[in-house]
Amino acid sequence: MADARVVLAGSLKAALPDADAVVIQAADIRQLLRRLGELYPELKDQLEEGVTVSIDGKIYNDAWFEPLPEDCEIYVLPRLAGG
Fold this sequence. Notes:
Elements: E1 2-8, E2 22-26, H1 29-39, H2 44-49, E3 51-55, E4 58-60, E5 72-78
Parallel strand pairs: 1-5
Antiparallel strand pairs: 1-2, 3-4, 3-5
């Protein structure tokens, strides 16, 4: 299980009004998002609708079982949509 520094961006950032980031232990993206929802229940709806996750600068969408490297930095953003 990795210690991940998680930064919330966009509309998700309101869940952390007093901090720039939170450290969460998780093995993969799915576990990370589940733990975020447990710690910050106000994020559950947005997390279930879908978010974009950036791990050390690489973007992941729907890669639930992507393992988290040790001491990584993660940005969680509202889902990026294109058209």
